[in-house]
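I am still getting used to backbone structure tokens and would like to learn alongside you. Label the sequence line and the structure token line clearly, so we can match residues to local backbone shapes. Would you write everything just below, so we can both look at the same thing?
***
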Amino acid sequence: MSSDTKLAKDGIDWFQRKAKGIEAGDIFSIPLPGGGYGFGRVMNTQDGARIAEFFRFWQEDDSFSDAISASGRLFSPIGIFLDDIAYRNRKRPWKVIAKNTSYYPDDLYEIPFLLEKGPGYDYGYFTLNERYERFGPVSQEDVDKGRVCSLLPQHPDMITEMVEELLTKLGIRQA
């Protein structure tokens, strides 16, 4: 475990106070329907952009390991509901297992977010750095393969299914 990472305990912060909420750098576990756990990390909670990345990592328990973040991204970061993550005595399906106080995603403002354009749903993209600038176009292959992501919060069940499906497809989790 790196010196900047501390294990999280039952909604208590590192000064033994009740946690104030979810912050960038929080690594959380995702219980998978087929057994075991997938993992994600909150990348941003500011500016109305609540974004998380999900890792190419599976294990039978939800304990923290540096190997989680070292495994790389499973797919492009996406918008999430912070309420999906347990905190402040709220039981939720995802649980913070570690906090990294010095985490900052270097690519946060360059990540391409999907933008639908026009009645034919022609896809383009934008970045947080240029929120009102439309870039594009985005190919259907980029959309299908998750090379661009949605800033709109995704339902936790959909994310859980996608994590499990991709981990299994890549042979990281055994079916």
User: Anything to note?
Assistant: DSSP finds three helices and nine strands in the chain.
